[in-house]
Amino acid sequence: MTSTSATIPDLLHPTPFRRIDVEQTKHALALAFAGGVSGGVFSEALDSAKVAPSTWDPKSFASDLFLTQFVARCHRVRVDGQEPTVHAGHLVRLLSHPPMDPSVIMHRRHILSELLATPVLRVGLERLYIGLCRFRVLVEGAKGVGKWDNARRQLDILQRFKTIVDGAAQDFASARSGLSCLFEFGGRIRSGEPYQSLADLLRYDDQLAQLTLDVRVGADGRIRGFKVLSLREEKDNPFVASPVRRWLGKIELFLRGFKFSDGEIMARLIDAIYEGIEDELPPLVQLLGDLEFYLGALGFHDYAKEAGLAVCLPELVGPDHPRALSGLFNPLLLAHGMKPVPCRIETDRFDTTVLVTGPNSGGKTRLLQSLALAQLLAQCGLFVPALSATLSLASGLVVSLIEEQKPDQSEGRLGTELVRIRDLFEKLPPGSMVVLDELCSGTNPSEGEEIFELVVQMLARLGPQAFITTHFLAFAGRLEKSASIANLRFLQVELGVEQRATYQFVPGVAKTSLAAQAASRLGVTRDQLLSLIDRNTRMAQSKKGMA
Amino acid sequence: MPTFLVTPKMSPALAARVERAVTGRATSSTMRRLIVVARFGAVLGIGLAIYALVVSRRASQQKEDSSRAALLESAQQLADSLTSDEKELPAKAEPWLSALTAPQWPGDEIASEARGKQTLATILARSTLYLRGALDGLGSSEAISETAKSSPKDALVLCLMDPPSARTEKALVEKVRIAYSGGADMEERTKSVRPFHDAVAALPYFLPEWTTKINEATDHKQLEKLRSQLAAAPTDRTQEAAKAQLLLVAIDEPGPETGHTELDGERPHQVRVALVDLRASKLLVRLRRPVDPGWLSETRRVSYARGLDSCALAHDIHQELAK
Fold first, then answer.
1. What stretch of H or E contains A463?
2. CB-CB: which of B9, B17, B39 is closest to A272?
3. Using CA atoms, how far apart are residues A211 and A233, in angstroms rounded to an integer?
């Protein structure tokens, strides 16, 4: 065994970064190649793969942003109408760990831009991905194929590897972004002796000799006879040996403890070829994960386009620049079959705390999700769910959209809310993005407002990009008028005809939460409740009479 | 470690990997060692068995060649020991026998050189073949050979060579007893006469067919069988008999269907006697005479009827030649 020395083609980072455990993966692949495993080699390697250094803590946002669902439904890889199973766990880990190095983000954006601008590169990438998927199926499918000739399976794996290498070397010659590493990867392997030997072995297996026949066919369509016109043997192939030498080889193998067969000779030659290329195989595992990252992003792009929406690579600016997102939509709504209404969000700078007010079911929570997802995707170097966007990088993200009641919860609603606030400040580094839904909704308004003001004041010290929704409308109105807290901004849900929410957001504080309207919509008016009481009373009397 | 799987066209790096692929294996080293030792043992055993088989076959082939050469040499010596005329002697006798067994007796004939007292004994001192059989037992080569097997030198031969002093029972018995006793005395008195069977018994071993048979033998076992046949064959007697110059024949015609028959089968019948010079292809004597044991005493007839009749016949022939 030689030590792993091959350079890994890394599409996610400008400086190649070995994220998978190469030695362990190499051993697992060798075992799978020999026919000893059934599935899991790629998944295990990718699931335990490292990610780029990140200041973001997934525990602070992943579950509230339904990241797993986003990957499963929006970040899908679709090639020629087929949808191969992606390594969702790996993708979730990549998305939940935005790199702290801006150059990594730019590296990824350049690749996506080039893929979008050059369809032929995207086709090449898709072809490479399909090739890798088939390679994975062959490598991991050893146990499921029963008594399939193992040497044939190994030759198919080697053939697939060669196709991948050839594709990488040929399809990405014109790439200018990080995709060019695929060209370098393919070219480097192709120039090596192991690749030449591999090609020779595959040619030896496929075309030991070429026979040209002249076949006579009778009136009934049957072959009447044939004549050999020419016979050409691949004498230059280094694997071609004389029949005597092959026989001696078989005897030698038998004496060495192997089987006495032609297949055993081929098995030994395959082993020799595999040893030459085995250092080049683990990179393919990492490469598969990388391709899913980009093809998933392109899938998200296509998915949005099919729904009449648009995604973009946002403009990244400093925190003191104006924030502007147009055509912002919530991809989770799209994933659940609903048509999201794109909105426009603007603030004069990023490091502000924005209080969002408005009626119930007016889209406040969905807006917070959209903003957080946009920030997350932007910092991963991916498309954001907006027609255009200007965003500033954040050092972290804390999202608190829902607070589930837990059976082992020791505190009441107020206590839980206070714990939530405490957690927020424990996790929050300066310059982070904070998204809070219904802050202090678990207590009475007078006490809640005090805590709310405290939180907003403290947040200002960390200079975050904060978005907070609240129903403390009067309090919010006072804050707006008094302007006692610096960098506090206000957005409200725009109301249309008949006081219906337009799912657009405009500056200001809402005057009403339209609770009555929501109550009416949900059947909680005086008349509707009285009617229910009457009905229940009649039913009870009727049952008594029958008894 | 070099391997036959490496070809001269392979690059050094590939060749090294092929060698590693051949020398390394996933199984435990102990198990592999055991397999290798077992296979080496098996191959060695098979090799030794093949070697032993080849050596054995070679030895067998040498033995076979040696046997064949010895047999061919002996066949050649036998073939060379006789002239072609000598080898054809039995064949030369057949036309004479055929003529003598003709249903119609052509009549008695005595060549001039056979006439005279004691002339016959002188003539018979030359090397002579003797054959006696029934008339219907000499019709073909096969029948002649079969008859010859049971045709030893008898009282007729003795009395033709050494005639009885008189045609009395007493004089005849004296000769017949010598004939019946056989042994050295009989052989000494009749040493120039050989039974016809001697001439044909081992004759096949002197002919080219015997050489062909030796060459066609496919293994040592067949050659050994041929060698045993040759060893058992009376080749020296055939050699001696084949040099005979004369043929003495006595043919017993069937007797009357009724009448008395002695214990030894003797009864009144005609006997055709002929003496032929085979070398000169000349008939010397051809006589047909009756024999009848009726005149013999009861005591002698029981024991010596055929011998006495034969000796009496010899006396009669001598008498005829002496005329």
1. none
2. B17
3. 9
Q: Which of B3, B4, B11, B46 to mutate against chain A (most A CBs within 10 Å)? A: B4
Would you call A256 and B36 a contact, using CB atoms and an 8 Å cutoff? yes
Tell me how long chain A is: 547
The secondary structure of A269-300, three-state, reads HHHHHHHHHHHHCHHHHHHHHHHHHHHHHHHH
Q: What is the pLDDT of residues B273-288, one digit of tens each?
A: 999 999 899 999 999 9
Q: How many other β-carbons are positioned within 10 Å of the β-carbon of residue A401?
A: 19
Interval A414-447: pLDDT, tens? 677 778 788 888 878 888 999 988 887 766 777 7
- Location of structure tokens 């097997």: B149
**ipTM of predicted assembly, 2 dp:** 0.76
| Separation between Cα atoms, residue A96 and residue A111, nearest integer Å | 20
DSSP A84: P
> Which chain A residues are within 8 Å of B40, Cβ to Cβ?
255
Q: Which two tokens stand for residue A244?
A: 């005597």
* Dihedral angle sign, alpha carbons of residues A94, A97, A98, A100: negative
Nearest Cα residue to B75 out of B224, B208, B258, B249: B208
DSSP B204-266: GGGSHHHHHHHHH--SHHHHHHHHHHHHHS-HHHHHHHTT--EEEEEEEPP--SSS---TTS-
Helix (H, G, I), strand (E, B), or coil: what is residue B130?
Answer: strand
Among B7, B13, B25, the residue with its CB nearest the CB of A193 is B13
CA dist., res. A78 & res. B167, Å (int): 139
Query: Can you give the pLDDT at residue A1?
Result: 37
CA distance B56 to chain A (A): 26
Task: Looking at A48-149, list the stretches that DSSP marks H as alpha helix, in order from N- to C-terminal side.
Answer: 67-73, 88-95, 102-117, 119-140
Chain A positions in Cβ-Cβ contact with residue B39 (cut-off 8 Å)? 254-255, 257
Per-residue pLDDT tens digits for B113-158? 999 888 888 898 899 999 999 998 888 888 998 999 999 999 999 9
Query: Are the beta carbons of A26 and A279 closer than 8 angstroms?
Result: yes
- Picking from A428, A402, A429, A432, the residue whose alpha carbon sits closest to that of residue A417 is A402
Q: How far is CA A400 from CA A358, A371, A403, A510, in A?
A: 18, 13, 8, 22
